[in-house]
């Protein structure tokens, strides 16, 4: 092939092909952008009226409240995503770096602010335990190395198949990393004080795991937290959704909201996509939906990606009891990101992963974005989100939810000194049922598959379908995993796999 033809092929390897993306979460939007940039004619079908999937927004009476993720972490991942299309995040939304990163209330009356300065954090650790400052510095060095290897080799590099890990370069890169022990075991080698252990492990909740079941490689999250910083996009994470959607439209993606997909029928090197409006054929489908939902509800009878036994044996990330509140007056000393923790959180994790039950003494997160961003609430009010991780699959009928609501609001008043109950002017809730019904999430998980050792990297469901060469997956259930940066990258990997197949492997990267 002449050089000029090769160059053109590299620019638009999917010219003349049609692609349908099912689901407008971050993974689906990212996949749509990459596919469109490669020349495909892309339709994105989103069942709800808003894009973003779980990253939605309540917008009413002057309040703008994120319903899903609210932490903007790994800023380089967003720069990398937009950079693929010669854009920058600042073209779509503004960022503010938070200092402190977050405030912690322990239920024994102790309270700390975690500053935006690793050296100040080391000094904080030293006040709790002699020698812990230097231990923190050493721990953070190991976390940085884990991040460099983990992100470069397992996130940005697609290793969604076991064979992708049989790479001598990878084996050299992971040398010296603790891969098989749990986070709990690894952190115990650095710190004795249980509060310090919590400060370096709380980010595991973002991965849907617990200290006892998450591999030590995820120390990388401490580098994300303490070194890379915590940010807030003006308007919340939903503004990032808006930005990615704007980019997708600029690239020519046809986005249709309020369009649920009812069937995917693979045949003749294409897939017939069924909606209420009719059917159409697509050369490629990228499903940004729970693969279990695709298995059970969208593929034809007798055709299954994995099957019910597989899904019943998975370890799911927690569900969540969510309160979305508009509150009159100020809510100090609650901060933009606030954690309320028992000094011993093991019982709460047991009630999520081992003996599922509503937590007796919950650890939870409170988000007050309006304390930083006045666009999130009307004057004289605050937007407040309360998230309590709970076991997936719990019975969450009205009576038990009302009882737990009272328990949580009372707990907030007791341990932070902020009584919200008589000042709530807007209230919405979400729990197991909503995550299951609205998003087809197995057992009503709020996040996807937990990052246990047996569900990490190539051991997660593949981005490639086993039932059709025309079907691919993106989102938190596949690799690289849970979190907005991971989902953006999963869309990139899905599109790269489509590109590689279309070109016989000639062009698998951008």
Describe the structure.
- This protein has about 500 residues and is an alpha/beta fold.
- It folds into 3 domains: about 5-55 and about 70-95 and about 235-315 and about 455-500, FAD/NAD(P)-binding domain; about 115-230, Guanine Nucleotide Dissociation Inhibitor, domain 1; about 315-440, Protoporphyrinogen oxidase, mitochondrial, domain 2 (Polyamine Oxidase, Chain A, domain 2, Alpha-Beta Complex), CATH 3.90.660.
- Helices cover about 35% and strands about 20% of the residues.
- It has 16 helices and 19 strands.
- It has helices spanning about 5-10, 25-35, 75-85, 120-130, 130-155, 170-175, 185-190, 195-200, 220-225, 235-250, 290-300, 310, 345-355, 400-415, 430-440, 485-500; strands spanning about 20, 40-45, 55-60, 65, 95, 100-105, 110-115, 230-235, 255, 260-265, 270-275, 280, 285, 320-330, 335-340, 365, 380-390, 425-430, 470-475.
- The strands form 5 sheets. Strands 7-6-15-16-17-14-18 form a 7-stranded mixed beta sheet. Strands 9-2-1-13-19 form a 5-stranded parallel beta sheet, covered by helices on one side.
- Strand 11 and strand 12 (about 280) form a beta hairpin.
- Helix 2 runs parallel beside helix 10 (about 235-250), helix 2 runs parallel beside helix 16 (about 485-500) and helix 5 (about 130-155) crosses helix 9.
- It is globular and about 65 Å long.
- It starts with a helix and ends in an 8-residue tail after the last helix.
- InterPro entries: Amino_oxidase (IPR002937), Carotenoid/retinoid_OxRdtase (IPR014105), FAD/NAD-bd_sf (IPR036188).
- One of its GO terms (biological process) is carotenoid biosynthetic process.
- Pathway: Carotenoid biosynthesis.
- Pfam families: Amino_oxidase (PF01593).
- GO terms for molecular function: oxidoreductase activity.
